[in-house]
């Protein structure tokens, strides 16, 4: 068992964030924290979008309570299973390995959230204002679209639907997952997959940011996270397809809105090395 509580997840996430920022910038990752605070103090626009992003994340944390208040009894899980059958089971059975499981859990519970924070840290460190705002806006779009689906189009996780025959491999590494992590995400909050949509969002932003190294990092992470949602027995193929579409939409709209929100003089920024890294 690698993880027993959210404390261990938080510690692992903190270390991973610092490592990702360092890999993405090859600079002192602690400097990103200083620049982040400075940007909040000097940029009302960044403060506004960051506050909205934090707000929508808080709204998402209360989604389960709202769901209980609505007391709806829809369940679209049988429909999804009828559509795709045993795809997840076949993939899980084919790849199942005691070596793959801990790596999948690490990317699902640690890298996923760390990459979001690290993305802002990387773009802040490079003073890439377009992509700092684009990240915030894209996350806002992801959650704004996903939350209504979680309320009115409930789909249960694959492992919890007996006919699927899928095992919940998360518990092999994180035995207290249901007690520690589950309150953050409902059992029927599957469609669309936010793990997919946000991973795809960060990948597209990374690839379009001009930082080739960070683009590679976000791409590899997205591939492993998407694989993990199936391997661990959590999401359906349908969830992933919807999440991919949402991620592509959110990332491109995020860049568009960020560019439109900034003044002309802020749209073109130079790396310290002298190379153009945002020529949109």
From TrEMBL:
Pfam families registered for this protein in UniProt: PAP2
UniProt entry keywords in alphabetical sequence: Membrane, Transmembrane, Transmembrane helix
Ranges where the Phosphatidic acid phosphatase type 2/haloperoxidase domain occurs: 181-254
Membrane-spanning residues: 6-25, 46-62, 105-124, 131-153, 191-207, 214-234, 240-262
GO cellular component: membrane
SUPFAM superfamilies per the UniProt record, alphabetical: Acid phosphatase/Vanadium-dependent haloperoxidase (SSF48317)
InterPro entries for the chain: PAP2/HPO (IPR000326), PAP2/HPO_sf (IPR036938)
Gene3D superfamilies: Phosphatidic acid phosphatase type 2/haloperoxidase
The name this protein goes by in its record: Phosphatidic acid phosphatase type 2/haloperoxidase domain-containing protein
